[in-house]
Fold this sequence. Notes:
heterodimer; A: five-stranded antiparallel beta sheet; 16 strands; B: alpha+beta; 13 helices; 47% helix
Amino acid sequence: MLFKEDKVARAESEAVRTNAGWFRWTHDLVELSGADAEKFLDWVLVNKIAGTPVGQGRYTTMLDEEGGIIDDLVVMHKTEDTWWLSTLYGPQMCAWFDSHKNAFAVEYSDRTQEFDMYAVQGPKSADIMNKIVSDSVDGLKRFQLLETTLAGAAVTVDRGGFTGELGFEVYCARTDSEAVANAIAAAASEYGAPRLTTLEVYVRSLPMEKGLALRQDYKGLTPFEANLGWSVHMDKDFVGKEALEAAVEGPARAFVGLEIERESYEDIGQNEIIRKRGVPVGICRQMIYGYTVDKNIGFGIVDAKKVPLGTQVTIGPNDSPATVVEPKWC
Amino acid sequence: MAILNHVSTHRGVETAFGKIIPEKEAYSYCLRTIAGFSANIFQLMRVLNDSWEDRTEKITEIANMMNCAACAGGEDELHEYLNAFYDEWNIPELVKRSAWIGAIWGDYGDEAEDMAGRVIQFTENRVEKELDTCPWDIVGSEMCNMTTGMFTANFDIAAGGEHGAITNDVQLNMCEARGCGNPHCRVVAERLDHYGLEPQGWLDHRGAAHDPVHDTPPERRVKHAQGLRSGQYTNAFGEENSLEWQYNWVAQMGWVWSISFPLIAIRDMADDDEEFERLLKIVFSTAGKNSFIDPFAREGLRNWLEIPREIGDNDPRVMGAYIGAMLGCQLVPFEWEAFDGEGVEIRVDQDTFTGRFEMAPLDEITLGYEAQWNGACHTLVSPEWSVWIDEDDDDFIITVGRKIDDRAL
């Protein structure tokens, strides 16, 4: 949980918003290759992967046959023959691929234990990166990759992150992890950029303020219900497409923001029931304190027809009063 | 809400008289009965050993060792064991999972056992967990130290960044305990290197936190865990377990940590098995008698089980229905062999009855419940009726019948 009076968490959050901060941000990493790699990714993912140039990544969701989100990930075209899939659920992803591989000529493996990833985030992040990488990160577009060296180690830099700020993610071999971390720490300290130690600041608070959600928030929703319709390419075939086409009446559920009026949210756990005039109308995915907006904010899934934006609801066992808002605060 | 919408989802335990005890109520009762059994065992321990320090140290050490033993094996086996947890619980690599799996583990267990609360802080150097309720709050202070010492194993087996090595990187303290009169239980894990702390001894797990704690005000406390509130537990990384899954899990695991583990040390506190079992029967028998001393307790049971008025007070079916409800809520399958005014017979598989957790069958369940139910029967029904348990091939037959015993306990 995060509380408004937590000075350490507030300082870490402010650093990323106004200066920079860095942290270990190692995701599960599934590597995929093979003659049908591009076709296969186009089949299992909703975004258009074919044609992604080498050195570029794309955000996408992965659906089950019912059209519900089972993962969201960044697909990186690492080399001509190799794709990196950044997810929090590598083993589950591989199992899903096993059951959907069919006749596709692809190979994939979970390489999470071989690589570490560090995130450098904030307005000054490019300055910090340029101090330590052999090639400038200036000019990199969002999700564009840079193969370079850092502290003598080969690294892949992705212009991206999960804070809503300018940022970079540095992939390195586990064997080079300490050297890379030390180099980032030294450069960051020159800019007064701290290493973030409060997990919930960089996993939940900073992202949520900017409307960035985790798979666990979206799980089971269609991309349209999750406000991710922009990433769906209905002009190609993909797992879950039929279900999306069948849902002609529009989204039954809405992915929304929540603001509670009380001081804190100790009584609101994951998936706490949301009520409107005492009647269950949805669930709260998670609450957190946002230090930039100075509010207790959260994501929720509600009945799309019964709960328009602005609806007054209550959440949890002690009926904490809340307002339904857009799921993005700054 | 029309019942039609819930017939298939709102399950429960059927009593001898056809009443359905709702699943959530049965789950809560199950937890409390396990805690009650545990409280009796701890009373026995206090009879056998009059030194708080000595008995607490002994049960803490054995519980920690048994918890470590759960993942015993070579380096690769431990690695596999941990990876299975990481995958099963969706614990991402970014949380430095090798260091903090203990906290995630603990949160899951707390919630399954309706120790309702919240993770106040989860940082690289410190985890603070605050609980508003604890079904085991009747057991006593030794358990608070024991469980905290036991769960250091969950940190130790994965800590230090060395897969396969059991290290000791944190202090784990239950700074406050509801069973000791505090409003909350509060468990704090703090990294030794960050706080400049020393490794703890077996009796050191009730120390203070080294950073300020957060005290949730009464108006935002909760009465039940996530499962009982909203139907499922969800951890911080999205792993979900249904109420049904939790109930089944706890009906096994509750017996392990709170009874099976400390019993290993408690048995050794007696001079021999005969002495241990003699005292165990006395403690459980007393607990049983006291269950229904108050007339309103008897009336309350009749009301809870909806025992028809035509069944009088001095009827074995009253006791039989009580045993049946307890077994049902503890998720122990059984069959009625007889249920009339002449007596009650309940058939239950021996392995099921004593082996709630298959790896650790507990003969003490039979000894304890036989004494407890017999004592309870004397006050709930009358001393004309007794409860005893016989073996019948692979089964037990639990009987409520007439018995004259000139040396009755």
